[in-house]
Amino acid sequence: MQTQAIQVKGLQKSYKQLHVLKGVDFEVEKGSIFALLGSNGAGKTTVVKILSTLLKPDSGTASVNGFDVAASPGDVRQAISLTGQFAAVDEVLTGRENLVMIARLRHLDHPRQVADDLLKRFGLTDAADRKASVYSGGMRRRLDIAMSLVGKPQLIFLDEPTTGLDPEARMETWKIVKELSDGGTTVFLTTQYLDEAEQLADRIAILHEGRIIAGGTLEELKKLFPPAKVEYVEKQPTLEEIFLAIISKKEAI
Ligand SMILES: Nc1ncnc2c1ncn2[C@@H]1O[C@H](COP(=O)(O)OP(=O)(O)O)[C@@H](O)[C@H]1O
Ligand SMILES: [Mg+2]
User: Fold this and answer.
1) CA-nearest residue, atom 10 of ligand 1
2) Using CB atoms within 10 A of its CB, is residue 250 exposed (0-12), middle (13-18) or buried (19+)?
3) Contact 162, 85 (CB under 8 A)
4) Where in the cell is it found (predicted)?
5) 161 shares its domain with 232
6) 117 and 24 share a domain?
7) Which of 5, 58, 110, 151 has the maximal Cβ count within 10 Å?
8) Do 118 and 231 sit in the same domain of this protein?
């Protein structure tokens, strides 16, 4: 049985003179969460576009669920779903209508039932009949991810799923990603945030100047760097921890 959901070898891509990917190699194990970490402009979206068959590489090979992206793009598309950096939610429609629309586009039986199940799973049942334009950032992102799960893809691409979200919505999204993975879905996510990769990923690959400069589990990556000098100071909470503590107190009142 094949255990790799994604295999990438020697991937290169240029946009005119701009050599963005200079030989990228990595593998993603089935059912795992893989984070491609890189700063803005590193080429993360380019990798996602190649793997989801939206863009052709100049050289190198990539296979998704055992299918070569160049030779069998149709089979690859069957197996995946893509949630882009910019939400695909139609603001004029309600949450339910958005989901029913996607289910119809994918020619599923019982689109209404599919929508109801996803609304429930993502805690959107109460908001189902409100227009998406009045949803909070976190709710919209939940709906966006729910939409990408219509039709039960085996592999989901999340391109910077939390960029632009407030801390609470980020944590909500993290929870969803973990649940997806617990349910057996392979998750390929890109992020600019170290803490996001740290929170979520089974394996992390760092894309820098066109190549994967480091990859492995968090523990393996930590070993690559010299240990920080130990200082005996009380650990200060992060701003995010403080913010969330305040919010949860408010909700408890
Ligand atoms: N269609 C395009 N034409 C020209 N340059 C592009 C195109 N798409 C992306 N780029 C450039 O390629 C580089 C990598 O982009 P991208 O893959 O979007 O990076 P990331 O997602 O890591 O921020 C950036 O410098 C970007 O400006
Ligand atoms: Mg990007």
Assistant:
1) 15
2) exposed
3) no
4) Cell membrane
5) yes
6) no
7) 5
8) no
For residues 131 and 103, what is the distance between their CA atoms, to the nearest angstrom? 18
Task: Read off the pLDDT band of 235 (50, 70, 90).
Answer: low
SS (H, E, C) 174-211: HHHHHHHHHCCCEEEEEECCHHHHHHHCCEEEEEECCE
159 and 222 assigned to the same domain? yes
Q: Give pLDDT tens digits for 98-112.
A: 999 989 988 899 999
CB atoms within 10 A of CB 20: 20
Contact criterion met (CB below 8 Å) for 207 and 43? yes
CA-nearest residue, atom 24 of ligand 1: 41
Q: How far apart are CA 133 and CA 119, in angstroms?
A: 16
Q: How many domains does the chain have?
A: 2
Minimum-distance ligand to the CA of 16?
A: 1
Q: Pick the ligand that lies closest to the CA of residue 84.
A: 2
Q: Report how far residue 25's alpha carbon sits from residue 138's, in angstroms, rounded to the nearest whole number.
A: 33
